Amino acid sequence: MAADHSGPVPFSVEFFPPRDADAEARLWRAVRIFERMNPAFVSMTYGAGGSTRDRTVRIAGELATETTLLTIAHLTAVNHSVDELRALVGAYADKGIVNLLALRGDPPGDPLGDWTAHPDGVEYASELVDLIGGLGDFHTGVASFPEGHHRAPDLDADTENLVRKLRAGAEYSVTQVFFDVEDYLRLRDRVVAADPEQGAKPIIPGLMPITSLAGARRMTELSGSRIPADVEERLARAAGDGPEENREAVRAVGIDLCTETSERLIAEGAPCLHFCSLNFAKATSEVLDRIGVDTRGAFTPV
């Protein structure tokens, strides 16, 4: 994030592992477009319960070895023993990946369901951070939750958990996607108040340009987060009252909202903007262009 970048702030991009050949081709089209915009890093998510484990490891390795992109691989504790987790960290290391995002992860099938640790695994993300730290010279990040994790009894408990992960050795956190900047700012304040040393570590805001109101509602439902009332109102007006939402109008408002959020975060000193791309480049690139990132030529094949 301290390296040279175009625009007022570094940015990064999140990809997810594709499920078939067509989706993989789409992913690589987006990868090559973003590569020409010089992101600070890209991350590859991890399928629930390891459902896309082999593909995730392979593609993360290809991102690291076949592009100029700094690659961060997500790693979750779901359905994995400690030995399996060690093997996965080793598989990433073999591909030159030393940046990992350590997540406890959600139960497969029902992200809001009851969490059950693997009998030979770990219970908490802080334990996963500690495990990674004992395996070599890795750089580890964790997740943070501006609205509080849905399993936390309150914001204080959620903050304590984040601080615990940072104390275990995590160097930064990336937030869950949010739509209210105040939630991010209050999270930052809480961590500083709880532990100034850990509060000095970067909290990278997670953003997503909304291109479908139904899709955004579904995402927040599954993640236990929310769409603020004023944002919902703007999107609902754009969607209209017909049987099908006006996707073009919703997309236009979604780009506006993400741009406004990005500009506010830049003004508030966010260290980086992390975009959930859904393996598409166009919507995120429009936001980046509006905030002053040089996207010229990014869509022109080299």
From TrEMBL:
Keywords: FAD, Flavoprotein, Oxidoreductase. Its cofactor is FAD. It holds the Pfam family MTHFR. Transmembrane segments: none annotated. GO terms for molecular function: methylenetetrahydrofolate reductase [NAD(P)H] activity. Pathway: One-carbon metabolism; tetrahydrofolate interconversion. InterPro entries: FAD-linked_oxidoreductase-like, Mehydrof_redctse-like. CDD domains: MTHFR. It catalyses: (6S)-5-methyl-5,6,7,8-tetrahydrofolate + NAD(+) = (6R)-5,10-methylene-5,6,7,8-tetrahydrofolate + NADH + H(+). Signal peptide: none annotated. It comes from the Bacteria. The keyword Lipid metabolism does not apply. Belongs to the methylenetetrahydrofolate reductase family. This is Methylenetetrahydrofolate reductase. It comes from Gordonia liuliyuniae. The lineage of its organism: Bacteria, Bacillati, Actinomycetota, Actinomycetes, Mycobacteriales.
